[in-house]
């Protein structure tokens, strides 16, 4: 499903400025004593409504790519249960969107707050990031940590030393303006 369900909940107005992408980038990284685990996903749908600061993203969990096929299989079958919980979503706001001037190419520090849903569990997150206005596009970047236990993702005792409970998530999306 396209980002329609996430982006177009934004209110419509004559001067709405919406920016979207279907090819964003999300990376997650786990650094445990016995093994480092990294996966990337370049099929991230994201949207920003500049007038309100509403920001959303949706990522299909099966689209994460791992270095080892077995890791990818375990991720989908045992950890995030991607057949049961096919995607992760974020719905929130950039709380200081008024500080961003779309007419001036510049990097702006922003604060994002909202609801992150993974594995059927939703948690409120408050994180820092940047919005870079560049040649009519918006480059949104952020890095934050989540705990697997917060999202009821359990790690079997047999591999607990290989997978950290803390996962670093990096979001990097280039948003293009859409015409109303």
Distance between the termini: 21 Å
What's the main sheet like?
8 strands, antiparallel, barrel
Would you report the number of β strands? 9
* Count of runs of 4 or more consecutive helical residues: 2
CATH class: Mainly Beta
Q: Mean pLDDT score, rounded?
A: 89
From the alpha-carbon coordinates, what is the Rg to the nearest angstrom?
A: 17 Å
Task: Please state how the strands of the largest beta sheet are arranged side by side.
Answer: 1-2-3-5-6-7-8-9
SSE order in H/E notation?
HEEEEHEEEEE
Q: What is the helix fraction of residues, given as a range?
A: under 10%
User: Oligomerization state of this entry?
Assistant: single chain
Q: Can you tell me the CATH architecture?
A: Beta Barrel
In words, what does this structure look like?
- The protein is mainly beta.
- It has one domain: Beta Barrel (Lipocalin).
- It is built from 2 helices and 9 strands.
- The protein has an 8-stranded antiparallel barrel.
- A hairpin with a 4-residue loop joins strand 2 (36-49) and strand 3.
- The two termini are 21 Å apart.
In short:
The protein has helices at residues 4-7, 69-79; strands spanning 18-31, 36-49, 54-60, 65-66, 87-94, 106-118, 121-134, 137-147, 166-178. The chain is mostly beta strands and 180 residues long. It is elongated, with a radius of gyration of 17 Å.
């Amino acid at each position: 499903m396209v980002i329609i369900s996430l982006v177009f909940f934004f209110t419509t107005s004559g001067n709405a400025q919406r920016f979207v992408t279907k090819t964003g980038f999300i990376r997650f990284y786990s650094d445990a004593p016995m093994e480092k685990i990294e996966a990337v996903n370049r099929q991230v749908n994201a949207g920003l409504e500049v007038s309100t600061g509403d920001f959303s993203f949706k990522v299909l969990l099966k689209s994460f790519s791992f270095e080892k096929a077995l890791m990818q299989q375990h991720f989908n079958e045992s950890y995030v249960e991607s057949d049961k919980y096919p995607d992760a979503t974020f719905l929130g706001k950039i709380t200081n969107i008024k500080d961003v001037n779309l007419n001036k190419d510049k990097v702006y520090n922003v604060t994002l707050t909202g609801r992150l849903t993974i594995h059927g569990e939703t948690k409120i997150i408050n994180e820092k990031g940047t919005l870079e206005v560049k040649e009519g596009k918006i480059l949104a970047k952020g890095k934050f940590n989540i705990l697997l236990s917060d999202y009821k993702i359990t790690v079997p005792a047999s591999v607990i030393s290989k997978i950290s409970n803390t996962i670093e998530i990096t979001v990097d999306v280039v948003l293009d303006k859409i015409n109303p």
